Amino acid sequence: MKRLGLLALLLVGCGGGGDPDDSPCAAKAGAFGPLSTRCDRFVDGQGRVFVLHGMNARVEGLFDVSFSDGRTALEPIPPFTLEDARRLRQLGFNFLRLPINWSGLEPTETGGIDAGYLDRIAATVELCRQAGVLVLLDFHQDAYSKEIGEDGAPLWAIQPPPDMLLGGPLTDLGDRRLSPQVMRSFATFFGSAEPGPRLRTRFAAAAAAVARRFATDDTVFAYEIMNEPVAADAELPGFHAEVARAIRAVDSRHLIAFEPTAYRNQLDIADVPATTFEQQFGLGGMIYAPHIYTVSFSSNESLRQSFTRADLRPSNAAAVNEGLAWGAPVLITEWGYGPADTRAKDYLELQTDIQDELMLSAAFWVWKEDSQGSWGMYERTATGWNERPLLRNALSRPRPEAIAGWPQRWSYDRAARRFTLTFTGSAKVTAPTLIYIPAPDDFPATLTVTCDARAIAPAPTRDPATGLIAIPCNGPGQHDIVVTP
Prior knowledge:
Number of domains: 2
CATH superfamily of the largest domain: Glycosidases
Low-confidence stretches: 1-20
Number of strands: 22
Number of helices: 13
Structural class: alpha/beta
Largest sheet: 9 strands, parallel
Oligomer: single chain
CATH topology of the largest domain: TIM Barrel
CATH architecture of the largest domain: Alpha-Beta Barrel
Radius of gyration: 22 Å
Shape: globular
Mean pLDDT: 94
């Protein structure tokens, strides 16, 4: 592994030019579904480049933070209902990153996989299916395990055994993350000596059990191998390949996401390989899934007062480079900022503008939260869960979902309420471009839509369930779509 400059890979192609659709990518989409990959982009079944706009949601009964031995649960976890899934879709989010835990899947070493836990995952996936929301199943951990941290591995997979079992309420997560028993557990799990290899094989088998259950499900589009692994860069590729192979053995259709080391959250950059993931391991359909938390966890109030776009952009640009080096499209599976923190509106708007500039897919942390920093799109009050206007206005904004060709750029001018998209069309792609437009409460009901400077009449109508408008603007050559009030 070696570090590369932020611009070193920006011009790297995927197979060179000459593709019949005149795009800069000569590769064909992989044999995956419901979404596949092509060069550094996601594509849907109609050949359109698909942009993922997601939300994380910790769900009661799945995010495993409670105990059966009398210890207090670590934190309250809200339920996720059909109303949640439908509202999420109305706000422009087309996928849910759903954290699940090894401790819930395989609570005992000899008891096998808990079928009831798989059923509860399936119930949430079904809610998303009804709402038209895709699902990324995320094998999640924070501070290794609920027994000594927040969530993740079962008690039997903590090696060496813990010095002390912990319970709730969880008010010391920062200390737990760095505690000796947590760090020892990670060192064992990713180490070359036993029981590390055995534990990794067991983890891979648990991941495969989930993949086997959802192998034919077209609401699930991917699995994410491990949230924020605490390991050295050199320890992760082999682990990711082992888990990916176990998943591929039972499910050849869905994409698989892998993360860099958790230390990237602080460093804003990760080591990159000299060869792609597929070249190293023969595995395609992979997604590079870093997190972006620049400034978010900083205690430096001066930095919070003064950050600019130039401060926030490098981590996102580095993620693009890292994805190109791995030969995988980038999906930022977590980014966020405390809604009550200094200059929250500026942070949210700058990050979403940068995501547009770099044409990134991303998922916000988090939907509902009544613990820790209470970062949720919804806040818990005496009257129940209430949507935060600050987050709705910043995150629910015009954006592309499916593009009938190869995107060159898109942007949204908040002051003018003007959305623009430029792309290279293809004779092969006849489906319309889909653009998300917020509901009339947040964006004018009457729209002007142009394709190549010609007004589309009548203007496309907004689907009330999804907020999508379908724009017929197709064919070879460059196309420009503009949407204004």
